[in-house]
Structures are given as structure tokens and as C-alpha cells.
């Protein structure tokens, strides 16, 4: 006997269709409808609201074997499928994270085919795998941020059983798993939740209508979010979540939903006996996100730090357009690495206003901020999805990597960057509705045309080739410069484990020297010096020591070291 239940305060009548047979449901005062039905494992089911004969998927669907427009299927995790009983877990603070997209990480584009690359990631030296959203979304392929059934695993990736196998395989190899969760909006294809209840608010954000987390009947919507978040960590053994664009979660209640999620995550971690981490993506530069709850903060474990990305990328690449306009100087790079945020109550020319708030570096360790040279956003949201490897020299890529991975912050890589992948990561969709497909393609072209791009140059998100172009080319790892960069990345990641000076999480102990005109930059981490030449010509840096790791061989002097153009060396100072 299986219990079927659904929160649906809007309709006057709700029936559940189980394998083609309708069953009446009973409503309680809280808007929940329930009934018990003798149903086999894997039974297909859905809900029929009022007199509309359409069978709708379960808002809390555990599995969508035929896509988001069809019936749900019963599913329960098999306890015998897990072999990670001795997995003790770990916090993400100070570790190295590898962000990947299941649909483009391997040619097979599934969770099972990704398992075949896990030994490579262990050898690379990362500690956690961060999966871009694997929740169910419309179509066969996409980024995953247009999810509509948040509880289900995207079936083309292999569905929930494949996610169990993937997480279990990661844990057997000592890799933690983070899952990207999107709670700030719902996708346009397959979103039936408003038929059931007031899941949406009257507001909106850049991606669609906002979620009702503080209006009338918001308590059940909040519970929907919280239960979904906890499910990834409890039922699928994930070690934490990356929370997408939390600045779009408009919450006017006294206890912010992120604070509530942090408290319940801590309780689950205690119950499970292993650490669980929450990483927020935020555009606010607000340290309250990562301030502990007992000190008035929201209690997130860490947050993405785009200022660090912008400072490194603009300084190395020379790009100044858009949100890079305030960055590019070595002074800005030094300030950002030293203080965590560049904009900390200071004027942002991109936003035309003051932005951010200072980080208390004496009480908040640097490991609560993530440093990276690129992410899916910083590549995929460019007009053509071009990676830095398509515009910079390999030496410049090495400089960027050394600054991010060698910094005191928690490090994150985006799939393929470690060998300078030549594949773009473009914005791709596969909406099955013709009108939505056309609107998505036209909107993308119009958006970038307004910023000066030739509309004909913008890839069509609906073109299958846009998706195919974005898949990694694993064979190119063996090519000379790609292999050399991969070796350098492995060296950097190994140093984070073997050099105690690189484990210091406090920014007050970080010292930086630079010369704006000569284009050199030195980041001192205890006895180690990460000496970078951002210029194209060799330059003498006022630091010397034994070479620990280098891109191009430096020339040592008694008190200086000559670093070739577009190169970096890690030195142990004399």
C-alpha cells in the first residue's frame, strides 16, 4: 500500500491517477490531499485537478521517466545500493572543488559515463565534485537552471538510480559531492505548480516569476524548498549544495529562508554524523551570508566570489567591458585578494551606485569565499560561450590558475580548464514547445545585439550543434601545451595539500607586492612566494628562492628572479 499526498489548496477536487485508474483523495484543513492505494513499485501516477482530465506530475515527484510533462513514477532509494558506509565526509572550506555539467562532461552525457572520469579527478587532486543542476527540466539537454520538478533527477542523465551510483562511486574514491540547487525561479517548460497552489509571488527576477517565500501560504512553499534541499543530502548522500543566485530569494520574514535552511542542514549533519556544506551564489558582496547564525548571520558555509574572478581575469586578459570596468589594475587585484571583496561599500561604475559591505577578515576566514578563474556563468554567459583558453596564451592561463589556487580562498575549477580546453561552453536549450524555442533563440540574439554583437554570431541555443560544441574534447589533453598546463594544475593542487603555508586561511597574514607599470605581482604565503609576470616581456622581480613549481624556467639572482613573459613561479624564499 502506498500513500499518495499532495499540497493543493487551490482546486476543490483532487484525484490521483495510478497506472490509469482514478482514486479520490481527501482534503485536510491545511490544504493537503491524501489517499492510500495498492500500487506496485515504480507505478506511474499523477494528479487530476477539478474537472480537467489532464494528469499532472507530482510537485514532489521522485522520478519523471518520460519527461516533465508526463506522469511521475514511484521511487525509493535502495539501501543496498550504497557502499559508502565508511565515508566520513568533509567540509568544503579550504578544499578544491571541480564544477561540471553532466551533459557535456563526457561524450555519453550521463552520470554513469561521468563515473568513468572519477579516477582522473582524483589524480588531478580535487576534493569535491560540484554538479550543475540535475533536477528535472524540459527537453533533453540544457544547463539545468530551468528546473520545474526539483525533487526528480533529470532522466536523460540516468535518473535517480544513476545519481545514487555516481555519489557512491565518488565517496568510494574519497571525493565529496555537491549539487547545484535552484530555488529562486521555475523554468517555463513543464511548470504546473501554480495549478496546485500559490508557489509564485507577484514579483519577478531576470529568469522568471519569483517564488512565494514570504507571502500568504508561504509556509508550505518554504517547506517545499527546505525538504527538497535536505533530500539531496539525505536520500542521495550529497555532501552539500550550491545555492543558485540567492540574492533573488526575496524574503521579508524575520527568519530568512537561508538561515532556516542552514539550521536544518546543521541538524541533518549531526543526525548523519558527517559535515554538510552550503555554498551560496550571491551578487550582493554581503558578509552576513557567511557569518555564523549565532553572530547574526545566515550561516552559509561559503559563497562564490565573483570579485576575485573579475580581478584576476581583467588583470591578466585586459578585458574592461561590462562588469570588468572597475577591475584590471594590479592595485584592484591586490585589494581584492587582500580583502575578499573589491566592492565593499564602494562605488561600482557598472551598477552606478555603491555596492557591497566590508568583510571582517579578522573573524571570517578566507576559506568561506571561493576563488576561481572561470565558472559556467563566466563562460556560458558570454555571447559566444568562449573560454579564456580561446583568447589567452597558456602562460596567462597558468598565471590565473596560480593566483586562484595559490590564494588563501577555497579553490574551484570549471571542467576542462585544467588543460585549457578548446571547447566553448555555450548557452544551449532543447525546449520541446516551438514557440518557447523560438522566443529563447530570438531573445538571446536580441540581448547581445543590444550590447553591440552581430546577431548572426550568437549561437542558437536550440541548435543541437550548440550543445555538441560544448562537450569536452578529452583527447586534446595529450597535446603538448594542453598536457603541460594539466601538469601545472596538478602541481598547484598538490601544493595545497603538502605546503602548510598554503593552508593559512587568514587574510591578515597575506602579503602582496606589485609593480603596475612593470606588470609583475607577487603573493606571499608564508615562506612561499607566487611570483607572476602578467606582461609579455621578461621582468626582474624583487624576490628570490628555490623553485617549487614553475611554468617557464626563471633565472635566479641573489635578490631578484627573472620571470619570462606570461609566466609564474612558486618560490621558497631564501
Describe this structure in words.
There is one protein chain. The chain is of the alpha/beta class and 574 residues long. Helices cover 26% and strands 22% of the residues. The chain has 14 helices and 29 strands. Strands 8-9-12-15-16-17-20-21 form an 8-stranded parallel barrel. Strand 2 (14-18) and strand 3 (21-24) form a beta hairpin. Helix 8 (306-317) runs antiparallel to helix 11 and helix 11 runs parallel beside helix 14. The protein is elongated. The N and C termini lie far apart (73 Å). The model has no long low-confidence stretch (mean pLDDT 96).
Summarize the structure.
Helices cover 26% and strands 22% of the residues. The chain is of the alpha/beta class and 574 residues long.
Rough outline: elongated
Hey, roughly how much beta strand do the residues contain? Answer: 15-25%
What's the Cα radius of gyration? 25 Å
Q: Please tally the β strands and state the result.
A: 29
Strand order, largest beta sheet: 8-9-12-15-16-17-20-21
Can you give the mean pLDDT? Answer: 96
Low-confidence parts: none
Major sheet summary line: 8 strands, parallel, barrel
Structural class, judged by helices and strands?
alpha/beta
Helix content: 25-40%
Separate helix tally: 14
**Spatial separation of the terminal alpha carbons:** 73 Å
Tell me the layout of helices and strands:
Elements: E1 2-7, E2 14-18, E3 21-24, E4 26-27, E5 32-37, E6 44-49, E7 72-73, E8 96-100, H1 102-105, H2 111-115, H3 118-124, E9 128-131, E10 135-137, E11 147-153, H4 159-172, E12 176-181, H5 193-196, E13 200-205, E14 208-211, H6 218-234, E15 240-243, H7 257-272, E16 277-280, E17 302-304, H8 306-317, H9 330-339, E18 346-348, E19 353-355, E20 369-371, H10 376-380, H11 394-405, E21 410-414, H12 434-449, H13 464-469, H14 480-498, E22 511-515, E23 520-525, E24 528-533, E25 539-541, E26 545-550, E27 555-556, E28 561-563, E29 567-573
Parallel strand pairs: 8-9, 8-21, 9-12, 12-15, 15-16, 16-17, 17-20, 20-21
Antiparallel strand pairs: 1-5, 2-3, 2-6, 4-5, 6-7, 10-11, 13-14, 18-19, 22-23, 23-24, 24-29, 25-28, 26-29, 27-28
Amino acid at each position: 500500500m502506498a500513500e499518495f499526498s499532495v499540497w493543493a489548496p487551490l482546486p476543490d477536487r483532487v484525484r490521483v491517477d495510478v497506472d490509469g485508474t482514478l482514486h479520490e483523495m481527501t482534503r485536510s484543513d491545511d490544504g493537503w490531499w491524501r489517499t492510500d492505494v495498492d500500487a506496485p513499485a515504480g507505478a506511474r501516477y499523477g494528479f487530476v485537478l477539478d474537472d480537467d482530465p489532464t494528469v499532472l506530475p507530482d510537485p514532489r515527484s521522485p522520478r519523471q521517466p518520460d519527461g516533465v510533462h508526463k506522469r511521475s513514477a514511484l521511487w525509493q532509494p535502495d539501501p543496498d545500493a550504497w557502499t559508502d558506509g565508511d565515508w566520513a565526509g568533509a567540509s568544503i572550506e579550504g578544499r578544491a572543488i571541480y564544477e561540471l555539467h553532466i551533459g557535456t562532461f563526457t561524450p555519453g552525457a550521463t552520470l554513469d559515463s561521468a563515473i568513468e572520469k572519477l579516477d582522473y579527478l582524483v589524480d588531478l587532486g580535487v576534493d569535491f565534485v560540484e554538479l550543475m543542476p540535475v533536477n528535472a527540466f524540459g527537453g533533453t539537454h540544457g544547463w539545468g537552471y530551468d528546473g520545474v520538478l526539483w525533487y526528480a533527477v533529470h532522466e536523460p542523465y540516468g535518473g535517480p538510480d544513476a545519481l545514487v551510483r555516481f555519489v557512491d562511486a565518488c565517496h568510494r574514491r574519497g571525493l565529496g559531492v555537491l549539487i547545484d540547487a535552484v530555488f529562486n525561479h521555475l523554468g517555463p517548460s513543464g511548470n504546473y505548480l501554480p495549478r496546485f497552489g500559490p508557489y509564485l509571488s507577484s514579483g519577478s527576477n531576470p529568469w522568471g516569476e519569483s517564488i512565494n517565500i514570504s507571502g500568504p501560504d508561504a509556509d508550505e512553499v518554504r517547506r517545499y524548498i527546505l525538504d527538497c534541499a535536505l533530500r539531496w543530502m539525505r536520500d542521495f548522500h550529497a555532501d552539500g549544495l550550491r545555492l543558485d543566485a540567492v540574492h533573488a530569494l526575496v524574503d521579508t520574514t524575520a527568519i530568512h529562508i537561508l538561515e532556516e535552511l542552514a539550521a536544518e542542514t546543521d541538524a541533518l549533519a549531526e543526525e548523519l554524523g558527517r559535515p554538510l556544506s552550503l555554498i551560496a551564489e550571491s551578487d550582493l558582496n554581503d558578509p552576513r551570508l557567511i557569518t555564523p547564525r549565532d553572530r547574526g548571520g545566515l550561516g552559509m558555509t561559503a559563497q562564490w566570489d565573483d570579485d576575485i574572478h573579475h580581478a584576476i581575469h581583467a588583470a591578466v586578459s585586459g578585458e574592461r567591458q561590462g562588469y570588468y570596468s572597475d577591475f584590471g589594475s594590479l592595485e584592484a587585484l591586490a585589494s581584492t585578494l587582500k580583502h575578499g571583496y573589491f566592492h565593499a561599500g564602494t562605488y561600482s561604475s557598472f551598477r552606478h551606485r555603491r555596492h557591497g559591505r566590508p568583510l571582517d577578515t579578522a573573524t571570517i576566514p578566507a576559506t568561506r569565499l571561493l576563488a576561481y578563474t572561470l565558472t559556467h556563468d563566466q563562460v556560458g554567459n558570454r555571447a559566444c560561450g568562449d573560454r579564456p583558453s580561446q583568447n589567452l596564451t597558456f602562460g596567462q592561463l597558468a598565471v590565473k590558475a596560480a593566483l586562484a589556487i595559490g590564494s588563501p580562498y577555497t579553490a574551484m575549477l570549471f571542467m576542462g580548464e585544467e588543460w585549457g580546453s578548446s571547447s566553448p561552453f555555450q548557452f544551449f536549450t532543447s525546449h520541446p514547445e516551438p514557440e518557447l524555442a523560438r522566443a529563447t533563440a530570438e531573445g538571446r540574439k536580441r540581448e547581445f545585439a543590444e550590447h553591440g554583437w552581430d546577431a548572426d554570431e550568437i549561437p542558437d541555443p536550440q541548435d543541437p550543434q550548440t550543445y555538441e560544441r560544448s562537450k569536452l574534447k578529452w583527447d586534446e589533453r595529450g597535446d603538448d601545451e594542453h598536457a603541460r598546463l594539466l601538469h601545472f594544475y596538478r602541481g598547484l593542487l598538490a601544493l595545497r595539500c603538502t605546503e602548510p603555508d598554503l593552508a593559512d586561511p587568514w587574510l591578515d597574514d597575506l602579503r602582496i607586492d606589485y609593480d603596475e607599470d612593470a606588470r609583475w605581482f607577487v603573493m606571499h604565503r608564508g615562506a612561499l612566494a607566487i611570483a607572476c609576470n602578467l606582461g609579455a616581456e621578461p621582468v626582474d622581480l624583487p624576490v628570490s628562492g628555490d623553485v617549487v613549481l614553475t611554468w617557464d624556467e626563471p633565472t635566479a639572482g641573489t635578490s631578484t628572479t627573472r620571470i619570462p613573459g606570461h609566466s609564474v613561479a612558486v618560490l621558497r624564499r631564501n
